[in-house]
Structures are given as structure tokens and as C-alpha cells.
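Chapter review: from sequence to fold.
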Amino acid sequence: MMRQEARSPSVRTADARWTSLVRTALRAAAACALAVPLLAVSPATIAHAQKQGGVLRVTHRDNPPSASIHEEATISTDMPFMAVFNNLVVFDPDSKQNRLDRIVPELATSWKWSDDGRNLTFQLRDDVKWHDGKPFTSADVKCTWDMVSGKVDGKMRKNPRKSWFINLREITTNGDREVTFHLKDPEPSFLAMLAGGFSPVYPCHVPAAQMRTHPIGTGPFKFKEFRQNESIKLVRNPDYWKPGKPYLDGIEYTIITSRATMVLALEAGKFDLSFTGELTPELVKDVEAQVPQMQCVVQPSNTQGNLLVNREKAPFDDARIRKAMALAIDRKAFSDILSHGVDQIGGAMLPPPEGRWGWSPEFRETVPGYAADVEHSRAEGRKLMQEAGYGPDKPLQIKVSTRNIALYRDAAVILIDHLKNVYIQGELEPLDSSVWYARLARKDYTVGMNVQGTGIDDPDVMFFENYTCGSERNYTGYCNPELEKQFHRQSMMTDFDARRKLVWDIDKALQEDGARPVIYHEKGGTCWWPQVKGLKLAVNSIYNHWRFDDVWQDR
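The C-alpha cell string follows.
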């Protein structure tokens, strides 16, 4: 049940208006469907063997900043371009939960840790070629991680995952088919970092500039074209190293920035698959009502809504103001408004059962700012703001920057409404995706509403990427050297229960410190027509399993 007291009249009106518009549009879908034949599939026509051919038509929510997965930090690049590449290893697509003990080979045939846990050696496939015909070798692996770890200048404009590999000492090769990662300290989760969608192997011989516009990979699909604000097209790789795969002739992404328009087109059969996690739970219900045969899931995306406050810019260098902003947040209200209570509440790590490292509900109750008595927290926030020189007659005027897509804008509107409770008046500043990420990277903002995921449900990735001193993705400028020592301590631990206990304590300290207040963990919906077969989605990441080499169409 939605708590009406948590929503101002302006937010309720805007939310109702948005819902009304979407529902009006959905009613119009019936008329649209008369002009576009629906692609219904009866149980009697379902085949039991994979079929070759067909183009998978997928919606896309916005314009990707570039095609280079290693240079970008968004699912808008990862999902459409992941099928161009391969990793050394990947999370087992047959397992719904991505985890360290469920990793399978891809470009590697096997791997082995040294006895001291500091050296990880891979044996590589000998039958793989890049899309331009050149052979894949160990040199490509070394080049990729020399570049990503910052050991050589790879001419990358951005390097959002450099912090993942701060424990990497060097990479060595032994011939063309063996490569070893040498670590400074033991780090069991290093293998998981190599398995995520953000860790493809790049070709040594292709410049970074070309990878942004015309990427070359070893994957099941070749890049064909990328039309800014229009579409992305991939075609089947006839020389793919997996015999008989991929089944599809190609994949086409069409960029549609209006969520209502996207839903209409999906329902009318113009598309086979929606962009992952883009549909709210309410929209999923509407889609299922309009097209009962549609296949849909609503599950955690392992992305979180978080408050960004640039502590390097006045007046936000005042800890009292940052704390007051965090105390103004009603997390349950966010979940109620955005997802009718489906979104989860937690700290930095994804809550259970889908997440392996998130707080238990009982532990969460011990964390300041997560208690049910929101008004008590807001009263404390108002006291802090008054100490800092603000009040009802002198509010703090701010701009709340965010990415110009519905998922971000809707949350930013709620945030602005909540901040009014602590004498802060916010103005929404929506930004194009490429501008948004560029400004965050150079800390050219004051307050932001962010929705972000790391792609992997593991503390090493979360802590090192978002909270280490100087990390490119540490958008708030947070730096706590003593806590960072604990990041490294948990990283070396092999006992799951002991490590999780320490992770909970670290996460609690981050939230108490206002490092990057986590507001909610999003659950998003994905829908596809029943003729799409072999699609496998993870319950704890939207950033993996987009190779599409097992997907086929039963038309």
C-alpha cells in the first residue's frame, strides 16, 4: 500500500499524469495493432530444435556514448555491443545467479591458481579469429589488461574499471596460448571480474578510437552500423568458433527514448524483445494485459538509485549539509512510487535472496537513515541545516542533475520533493547520456540523482570502483584510507561467512559516512515475444548474458 503522506501533491499529480498518459497510449495500441500483424505463437507450433535465421529486433532506451565497452559505464553500451566480443571466462548462463563458483570458460579453455593465490594462469583456445581475420593470441589478453589497468597508454578517453584491477601487478605470456595474471595479494574474486560483461578481450591491432565507432571482436556477431540516436545493427559471424552458432542472422537495436512509444511498438509486434530492465512493474502488468502470450520477468537488475553530492564543491564540503540531505530521504516512498513497493531497500550491496552480500533485514534496521521513523530523521536534518545557516526563510538553492531518461528523471523528481523537508530547493537538470557521464567523470556537478550498477555482485567490484580514493567512478570524491584497508582485507578472505560479516560492517560504515547514500535497489521488467527462444537472464545482474549465441527464433 502506497503511503500518501510520503508524496507531495506535486509528485502525486505528476505520477498520476504519467500513468494516465501511458495507459491512454496502451489503449491506442489496439488500433496500432490493426496495421501491424501480431506475432502470436500457438503451443502446437513450438519447435523442439533450434532454428537458423532471423533478425532479433530489440528496443533501446537511449543513445550509447560509444561502442567501446571498456570505456563506458552503462548498460546502454554493454547490452548492444556485448555480442561482438568474448571474455576469457563468463558466468554460467544456465545459472540464474551470477556467482564466483559458477564460471565457465570462453576464450580460455582452463585456468589454474598458484598455491599462494597470487598467480592466475589461463590456457587459451587456438581456433579463434578476430572479425578482420587476424588470429587471437595471448598478446591480445595482455594488451587488454595492460590498457585497462593503466600499465600502458591505450589512448582510452575514459577508464571506469581501472580500479577493479589495482591489485594486478603484471601480465605475462608463455607462447600464444598461455597468459598469467600476477597479483600483489591473493584475490579470489579476481576471476569474477574477468567474467562480467564489462571485461571483454580487445584486439591489440585495433586502435582505441576505432573501438568507439567500429568495434572488432571475436564474438558471435559482427558490428555493421551505429546510427546515432537511431539504431545499432549486428550481423552473424560466419566464422564463429562455436560450431553452428549463432543461430540468428543478426540483431537490430532501435533507439526509442519514449517509454510509452516503446511499449506500443513492442505490443504491436514491431520488436521481439524490450531493453533489459527498462519496464516498471506496472508497465509489465499493462503489457501482459494487452498481450497475454508475452513473456515477462521482473527481477533485480543489480542497479541502485543513489544520491551523489560533490563534496569537493562548496557548500557541500560541509558534512552537516551532506548528512541532512541523506536524512531527508524516505526510502520506502521511493520504492512505493517508482515500483509500487517492488524495489528493494539496502546498502551498497544487493539485498538477498538474489544478492549474496547484502544486509539481512535485521542488520539493516541497525543502520542510521534506514529506520521507519523518517520524520525523526528529517527533524535531525533540519537542525543540521540551521546550524549551517539555512532555514525556511533561507533555503539552499541547488540543481539536481540526472540522466535524461525516465528511470533517472522519475527518481530525481522524488528526490527534489524530499529535499524540501530539510530547507533545500532543487531544480531538475536532465542531461544527455554522453554529457551526463562526462560531467560525472570530471566532477562537474553539485548534486546528482544516479542509477548505477557494477555488473557483478561482489564486494571487490563495488568497493574498489565506487569508494576508493581517486577511482574514476568515485563521483562524490569520497576518501577514507582507513576504511579502504578493510576493502583490501575482505578481498583476500576465502571464508564466505566471515567475509560477508566484514562486508556488512564496511557497507554500514559507508552509509553512516554518507559516502554515496543508497536509496533503493531497482527491480526492472523485461518482456519478449514467445517466438524468442534460448534467452537467459540473471537475477543479480542486467550486465551479463547478452552474447545471444544461444538465442533463436521459432517463427
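Two observations follow directly from the output. The first helix runs from residue 9 to 35. Residues 249 and 500 are 44 Å apart (CA to CA).
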